[in-house]
Amino acid sequence: MAGDKKGGSSGDPPYTDGKPELSKADNKLTSLEQRILESAIRGAVPRLVGASHPDLSTHLHDGEMPPEIDFHLHPELDPKARELPGTDKAIAYRAALTQALIQPDPRAHREIIEELQRSELPMHTLAIQLFSPVAAHLGRLWCNDETDFIQVAIASTRLGMIVNHLSQNRSQTIRDRQKARRVLLARTQGAMHTIGVSIVASCFRDMGWDVDGGADLELNDSLYMRLSNSSYSLLGISVGQIDEVDECASAIRRIQSNRSLSAMKIAVGGPAVMKNPQAFGGIGADMVARSALEVMHLADRMG
């Protein structure tokens, strides 16, 4: 027929060598498709790198790590984190913990607590290799619109309960030490997601520190009163938003102006620091920690 084209009728798209010939318009992605593609690539790269190169942690130095790797999701690719005792066993719990956090049935939540208690894994290993990456994964699900705020809030609350339960359960003997190193943890007003503070607290307790403060202590008069009444080796501040840099710097200057606190070190961390650590480089803190692993190394050096 006159209207026939190679490989089809007049209503069919033209073909070349048996394949559809796309127009220039067909080659263009919509803005929505571009965002979906970018999100998929960003999410897939760390997993592909880790799966294809399981020996990265033993053959690469810190300065040679590919920039695509997200160490918040895959801390095991950091050579120092890989040395934590029980790392592989802790990693194996990630899928089960994630499912327990998002399932409506609370029995899975209780079962994972019992399982982690029986595992006898060090709390700092659980914090670095299990709790932190699972928390980061929950955050990514929300940012990518793969779940809603309520689901993430419930999962985060459950995760916080698990961390606090295991941490408190394992720290009873530490409280009896007369000269335990002491850390005071606080947060800025904008640090609404407090699971990170709980994870850091669990690391310190597991390493023999006496932990005071926490997610309920903000940068206000209550903080300064505690500093006046007790002695601490370290003050850790979790910062929630970038625009709280000045507030944090002002608090640090006030603390450092007190001569009786001159021996105490100050570390800042939290969501804002993870997002833009450079913004906190000149505020007077002794350390800017981008992860719980860096906090743990600081505590180890101070010990």
UniProtKB/TrEMBL annotation:
Start-end of Basic and acidic residues biased regions: 18-27
A GO molecular-function annotation: metal ion binding
Region (Disordered): 1-27
Gene3D superfamilies (UniProt xref): Cobalamin-binding domain (3.40.50.280)
Limits of the B12-binding domain: 182-288
A Pfam family reported for this protein in Swiss-Prot or TrEMBL: B12-binding
Record-given protein name: Methanogenic corrinoid protein MtbC1
Species the sequence originates in: Rhizobium rosettiformans
Lineage: Bacteria, Pseudomonadati, Pseudomonadota, Alphaproteobacteria, Hyphomicrobiales
